[in-house]
Amino acid sequence: MTAVSRPRGLPRVRPGGWAVWLFVAFFLLNLAALILSVVVNSFGTKWFGGWLPEGFTGAWYSDAWAEFALGDVLTATLEITLIVVALSLLVGVPAGYALARRDFPGRRVVTVLLLLPVALPPITYGIPLATVLYKVHLAGTMTGVVAANLVPALPFVVLVVTPFVEQIDANVESAARMCGARTRQVFARVLVPLLLPGILAAGILVLVRTVAMFELTFLVADADSQTLIVALYGAAFTPGIRAAQAIDAMAVVYMALSAVLLVIALMFVNPTQIVAQVREARPNERRPVRLHGGAGAGHRRRGADRPRAGAAVRRRGRRRARRRRGRRGLAVHDGDRRVATMPGDLAREDVADAVFARLARDGGLDVLVNNAAMTGVRTPFADIGAGVWDAVVAANLRSAYLLSVRAVRHWRDAGRGGAIVSLSSPGASRAHENQSAYDVTKAGIEALSRAIAVELGGLGIRANCIAPASVVEEVRPATDLPAGRTTAPEEVADAALFLASPAAAQLNGHVLRVDGGLHARLRTGPSEERGRDS
Question: For residues 77 and 214, what is the distance between their CA atoms, to the nearest angstrom?
């Protein structure tokens, strides 16, 4: 007996599967034949019988271009589609972000209403829409055509962008804002790069939909504002004698335009990405981020203008300027009620206890940024008094200890991880002139971070440091830094964002030097040391 086995690598297809494949093949063959017949006829001279025309010519395309004013039609089509795409993205991207990140009464109703113009046939709402546009004298104008096409395009952008926003970890935005990035910077440096595939997908797909939108454009356009699809319909069905080959040539132009746009769209988006995913957390879930301190230009910049969305920030420090007292000692910082301040001495245990009691009531803590520092003391070591020394140690190191130990206890007891980002200095490893107390505290902060990393890293608790140099509000040349310039506060904020984000999950006990190469240099002159800000 001889056994015959199926060759390896060939899939086993059931009879039902073969039937499906045969049906698909039959459908594609008929579709190709239909398209091919139009293309062939657009080049044919006469075609009354047989498989091919009697001859071929390209004159029908020039005739169609002249007879149907395709130049003007294509210009109008391009103008309308670009305006619709621009307005849809301008409004739809922020709306999609809000729908993904915010939880508000009626959110499900809004989602259903957005689905209606996309799911329903355009003719069902096109006639009432056209009636309104005629009453306000917008029908027959470019503005009216754009307005009609925006009705399905804008919800479509919102629905496309929303799942892309949901796939972005909200903690990344929260950390960016917590670390000092303003709204424009968060949008330009965080959201736009991450949302770029979704924005491109939405824009290109809206472009394709607008070019192909017949019903709405047909109902409100006139001869000067019609798009290519409407002009093609008019050429085929309005009264008059026209060569079928010229109409087919016009149809080929439309098919080629649509095919090119569709291919470009598929280069940027996978259709499966448009399906919204169920998020584990609520869209508006935001946990308070604890930030304390602020001194010096860079420290103030990093401590100001905290999250306006996605994260609530508790900011503490000795400065009371620009604060308005609120209930229970909380204040509102710069008018943003998600950025709260509490006046108090960071080196006191009762103040630290009060802060964490408030955080516990508000829902917990994700990231602690130790940003407090007393930098103004510049006294030779031989002349520094014990009182000044203790004050610097209390402001710079004791405060970091009091808040860090409570943070790790909070995370340990809750059975979850967290991140601590502490601001250190090049002085932790290379002494500044006449800043011995400051340098000792920064070295202590780095040692504290390493201890936390070693003892609590197994619980998912991370502690890292940033050692910036020459952080000033306005970037200027600096001869003591190999980079040749000072450090911008936003560059330190970006580093803190990285250390606080899941992207740095494997970094623990690390010192990230944002110093323009200062630490790599062997020697720096004393005169240049005096000019360093951090």
Answer: 12
Query: How far is it, in rounded angstroms, from Cα 154 to Cα 158?
Result: 6
**Residue 357, token pair as written in the block:** 């009691």
Whether residue 163 is predicted with pLDDT greater than 70 in this model: the reply is yes
Identify any residues that bridge with 370 across adjacent strands, giving them in sequence order. Answer: 292, 422
The CATH homologous superfamily to which domain 288-530 belongs is NAD(P)-binding Rossmann-like Domain (3.40.50.720)
Whose structure tokens read 């040349």?
477
Residue tagged 């031989």 (tokens):
382
Question: From the centroid of its chain, how far is CA 160?
Answer: 14
Please report where in the chains the tokens 């002159």 appear, as a residue: 525
Tell me which residue of 473, 467, 481 sits closest to 529, measured CA to CA. Answer: 481
Predicted local confidence at residue 474, as pLDDT:
82
Lowest mean pLDDT among 254-258, 261-265, 269-273: 269-273
61-274 under CATH 1.10.3720.10, yes or no: yes
CA distance 153 to 161: 12
What is the pTM assigned to this prediction? 0.48
The neighbouring-strand residues paired with 271 are: none
Query: What share of the chain in percent tops pLDDT 70?
Result: 78
Confidence of residue 451 (pLDDT cuts 50, 70, 90): very high
Residue range(s) in the chain whose domain bears CATH number 1.10.3720.10 = 61-274
Active-site residue set:
438
